[in-house]
Amino acid sequence: MNMPLVKAEPTPVMPAPTAKVLPLEPKRNALATRLATRVRDVAIRVVPPIVVITVTLLVWELLCRRAGSTLPPPSRVLDDTWELIVDPFFDRGGLDKGLFWHLSASLQRVASGYLLASLVGVALGTLVGQSTWAMRGLDPIFQVLRTVPPLAWLPLSLAAFRNGQPSAIFVIFITAIWPIIINTAVGIRNIPQDYHNVARVLRLNHFEFFWKIMLPSAAPYIFTGLRIGIGLSWLAIVAAEMLIGGVGIGFFIWDAWNSSHISEIILALLYVGLIGFVLDRIVAGIATLVTHGTAAN
Amino acid sequence: MAYLKLDHIDKTFTRGALETEVLKDITLGIEKGEFVSIIGHSGCGKTTLLNIVAGLTRATIGGVLLEEREVDEPGPDRAVVFQNHSLLPWLTVYDNVRLAVDKVFSATKSRVERRAWTMHNLELVQMAHAKDKRPAEISGGMKQRVGLARALAMEPKVLLLDEPFGALDALTRAHLQDSVMAIHQKLRNTVLMITHDVDEAVLLSDRIVMMTNGPAARIGEVLDVPLARPRWRLDVASSPTYLKCRQRVLEFLYERHRFIEAA
After folding, report:
1. pLDDT tens digits, residue range B85-106?
2. Residues of B in contact with A194 (CB under 8 A)
3. Which of B88, B92, B104 sits opposite A195 (nearest CB)?
4. Which one of A145, A255, B7, B83 is least enclosed by Cβ atoms within 10 Å?
């Protein structure tokens, strides 16, 4: 009984002096190593893309440099489009506008169509996920309609709306809605029986069940659908705008082709790609924000 | 009349033309403050019986009376601690319990009182320290504790435990059993527990209900456990009464099992 007491007394005294001597040096080292690892982490991520991009540009430059090549080399592209790059905000009336205006017109169409698709898609997905009857009735229709290519809807919507703007928005809507519906429905159907039991024991009403169990439980699935949806919307808008005309990046590309401004097409493609990437990141960002948000409630 | 009464319950599952009789003529009375265990081999319909008491499943014939009133749908007066904890993964430990508190006491407790009540129940199961963690960040035993806190926070008339420690390792299970005993000692709540662990049943229960093998499982025998409370695991383990009760349950399960094999 006495042994542990005797042993316990000197042990707390021993580490104290050693602890006083040590701290300064390793701290400085730790800071230096931490900085080094941070730099290395950034380098690991940044260096490979820079190398690949440089090599690609070089190869492209070499391939397209010779006389008679059909596409301009990157140096010519930069030269030709320098005005468009430095001044995206000019507006000379009509369709002669800077790239900013074209892109913002396209983004506005995508925003309207996509938001509409999100609302209707989540609502329909919830209905289909919850009701066996609705699923049996609607699922075959969805499965057939979702395979229709976006542009195939355009003539029909032009006939219905008799106007380019709502037609383009409709095409975005009908393109984006299917993955949203289907993923939401799967998410709702996959709510574990346990959560249903908890809700029943707590006597949650339909409204509470929807907000407190159903949406958070299906949220990861819903956001998968929303992410696929935003990608498809951006794919569809360029094609739709080529056909309907008016201000928009799709029309800009088509117009550039008609005037043989190949460099402008390449610049526009770059912008389209970058914006598509940013859109995807935004929806992914909202997804993490929202799933954390509901979790923090 | 008993506080909780299971009255001539039959349960038949129908799937197409196929009818499976799961429970047959289950009648059982449980007094207020009593701790009753239901034990039987797996597949004998124990969980179905608990679900009927919880109101999650409807009895085919017969019903459940709580304070002489029939209960045929789920409610917080019969809170369940589920086999697999069933915590909502997007809520913190605190919010999981708070969800139940908010729902049950929305009219009777103020916001501050509900907060205090939530914390009180987390303290009761010794989980107040993890209140801001999410279920994925705590161990299986801790999840079960939070599940218990959520059920206790509803102030149920009957606490239903569905093999609550089945998925835990032996040491954690013993620890939780002690907690449940301490809480029962303190709150004197009425508890109905499903288990397949003989020691657990004898240690915790006032009475043990032994079910025959399915299909059409019945109550085979009801055993009183006349051990004084509070019970201490180590003291009780060597007491003749404990050993006798344990022997009795084992004999029942063994006999019935052999009976099935012969049939």
Report:
1. 889 999 999 999 999 999 999 8
2. 82, 84, 86
3. B88
4. A145
